[in-house]
Amino acid sequence: MSDEPRGGWLREAGVRAWRATIDLLYPERCVNCGRFGSVLCAVCEVGMVVVAVARCPNCWGQWEGVGNCPRCFGWDALEGARAALDMEGAARRVVHGLKYRGIRSLAMRMAGSMAGLGDRLELDVAFAVPLHRSRERQRGFNQAELLLAQLELPRAEGRLRRVRKTSTQVGMRLGERRSNVAGAFAYEGPPLRGLTVALVDDVVTTGATVNECARVLRDHGARAVWAVAYARANYDGTKDDRIED
Fold first, then answer.
1. CA distance 152 to 112
2. From CA 43, how far away is CA 192, in angstroms rounded?
3. Can you say whether the dihedral through the CA atoms of 69, 62, 123, 95 is positive or negative?
C-alpha cells in the first residue's frame, strides 16, 4: 500500500472520528420539542399536517372569503403560490432552524414535505429566490438554494440574481416590503420565452419578494411564474399589517 492511499484513509478515519465525537458531545435535538436524536423527530414531523381548511385559490393561504385573499390581491406578476405547510407551530420552528440557526440538515426534511407541489403546474424551469451576496456570505448559505438542490424540479440555464442589497423585511408592512425589493433582482441567461417557471423559497409571507422576482422573469419572456415554498404565512385582518417572519 502506497503512502498516499494510506494517508487518505487516515484522514477519512480522522474525520469520521471527529464527527462521532461531535455527535456524542452535541447530539441532535428536535427543533420543535427538543427531543434528542434528530433535528425533527418523527412525532413532530407527523404532526405537521396541513389542516383541510378553506384556502385562497391564488396564494394557498387560509381564507374563507370570496375570491383571492387581501394578502395576495396585489400580486401582478405571480401566477400564484403553493406551499406545503402553514407558517406556524413546528413548521415555523423548522424554517427558523434552517434560516437563523444554520441547521442545514433540515433542508432535506423541508424538501420532502414540498415534493409534489409542482406536479400539476407543468413547470419548465426552477430558480431559487436569491440572497444578496453579502447576506449569503454572512449566513453561509442560501436556504432557497438548499431546498432547490433537494427537489426534483427542472434546472434553469440562466441565473436570477439579487443585485441590490435590501433591508431585512421582518416587521415591515406590506407596502414597505414592496418598496424594499423593487428593482432588487436581475436575470442573466437565455430567453424564457413561453416557459412556466417556479420560484423556490422557504416561506412566502406577503409575496412581495417572489412577485418582484416574477416581474423580472416575465420581462425575459416567462409565460407564468409560480412560487413554491415550504410554508405560507396566513392573513389575519384583525392584526396590524406588520409581519414577523
1. 10
2. 43
3. positive
CA-to-CA distance for 178 and 212, rounded, in angstroms? Answer: 8
**pLDDT at position 80 over 80:** yes
CA distance 51 to 42: 18
Contact 69, 56 (CB under 8 A): yes
Query: What are 178-201's pLDDT values in tens digits?
Result: 666 666 789 999 999 999 999 999
The residue written with cell numbers 410554508 in the block is 231
> Is 210:81 a contact under the CB 8 Å cutoff?
yes
Helix (H) or strand (E) segment spanning residue 228: strand 224-232
Angstrom distance (rounded) from CA 115 to CA 111: 6
* Residue 125 CB neighbour total at 10 angstroms: 18
DSSP assigned state of 38: -
pLDDT at 174: 57
Assess whether pLDDT exceeds 60 at residue 222.
yes
What's 62's DSSP letter?
B
Q: Distance (Å, rounded) from C-alpha 128 to C-alpha 147? A: 8
Say whether pTM exceeds 0.85. no
Spell out the SS3 assignment of 166-216.
CCCCCCCCHHHHHHHHCCCEEEECCCCCCCEEEEEEEEECCCHHHHHHHHH
Cα 107 to Cα 95: distance, rounded to the nearest angstrom: 9
Q: How far apart are CA 15 and CA 13, in angstroms?
A: 5
Specify the pairing of strand 185-188 against strand 196-204.
Answer: unpaired
d(CA 54, CA 64) in angstroms, rounded, equals 5
Q: Which position has the grid cell 409575496?
A: 207
**Cα–Cα distance, 129 to 228 (Å, whole number):** 10
